[in-house]
Write a structure and sequence with these properties.
GO terms for molecular function: ATP binding; UDP-N-acetylmuramate-L-alanine ligase activity. With about 475 residues, the protein is of the alpha/beta class. The protein is built from 15 helices and 21 strands. The protein folds into three domains: about 90 residues, Rossmann fold (3-Layer(aba) Sandwich), CATH 3.40.50; about 200 residues, UDP-N-acetylmuramoyl-L-alanine:D-glutamate ligase; about 140 residues, Mur ligase, C-terminal domain (Protein-Tyrosine Phosphatase, Chain A, Alpha-Beta Complex).
Amino acid sequence: MDINLENFKRVHFIGIGGISMSGLAHILLKNGHIVTGSDIKNSHIIDRLRQEGAVITIPHEESSVIGADLVIYTAAIHEDNPEFKKAKELNIPIIDRATLLGIIMKKYKYGIAVAGSHGKTTTTSLISVILDGMGFDPTVLVGGEVDIIGGNVRVGSSEYFVTEACEYTDSFLKFYPYIAVILNVDSDHLDYFKNIDNIKQSFRQFANLVPPDGFVVACKDDANTMYVVNGLNKNIVTYGIYQDSDWKAKNISFDDKGCAIFDVYYKEEYMGNFKLSIPGKHNVYNALAALAVSHLVGIDIKKASHYLTEFKGTHRRFEIKGIVDGITIVDDYAHHPAEIKATLEAAKNYPHKRIICIFQPHTYSRTKSLLNDFAGSFDNADKIIIADIYAAREKDTGIVSSKDLVELISQRGKDVLYLKDFDSIVEYLNKNAKAGDLVLTVGAGNIYEVGETFLKGHEKAVGI
């Protein structure tokens, strides 16, 4: 959509508290726009926007859009939303979040868009931290909060723009990447996509957005990703651990916290030994992707080593929330079977006696379509607790429940328990968690509240 943002003084965001929406609002505030917005509840993200000058109402009210020049909405907002309906009635221009992101991205010469079914937030953060540390002064929009850049957004003054590129509803097809990163391609968002072939087709369209002088950075170890880029008339840069690729990690080992130490080679040339401060083998892939992108923009990779080690992760990605009585509470955003497997694999290398995994499924459609895969993703946990499904943008039609997942996990011989509400889960932990236990709260909803409530209930809890 050919929209000049300078023609719109006041921009209103319906659902401004979302991680991406809030970042876009922040960018517009920095660029001199009047920003208003609404959401269903307050949060620290909304508090921060208010401090920066945004006027935000809770909850959604049709009067909030009156006087706006442009309205932005998220995928979670439906046409029956009172503000959406009022904007239509008043003929105020309305665009979705992804369209706005694309409009902003188009202004930058070097747009770096990180796509993939898993790992987008961490990889985007790694690229951002390296570029920032090396003086590239990028503008960054990331789907998580990163302490090093001060949150989920950073507004720079250079020609570099770094963002996550989500495939849901084909959002990333509205972007303008100079460098398109494809980490992996997996079955997900099957409430929108028909099947894996449909998903691969979408990712191929995304890769095709890269201009002739741009680059596609792709994981060679991921078969679906290589299917996507096969025969593509683009500059392809590959990375991996097992397959021969442009960027390769060798001699991988792990420290006592499960963080990887590895050698990096670029076209068989030794580039140095690298050390991560975030656990899990999957983060070696994320680091390789970040190094490949950094090299493409002219960064001396050996000098970037320090920034990889310095990066301690984003919030909600194997985030150590605290320790009490020898019990470690970790929170992770994993909400897909492949992500759960990777998180529990990382947990295996972290000091523990038992791994207690508390999972909150995210959306009914995903739970239903990937039910068998979910059941097989908890094999590295010693105890599994399943909470009720987090509805997010969906309504409960009775097609699936957490009890269905519990039954399938139980059939695999695993120790699994269904606990409906958070209070019951906290009570269970108070009675059963022991010194040496690693307690993981896992899911894209609000399951992190379980760990926080448990820690608050113990005076001796130590925050990390």
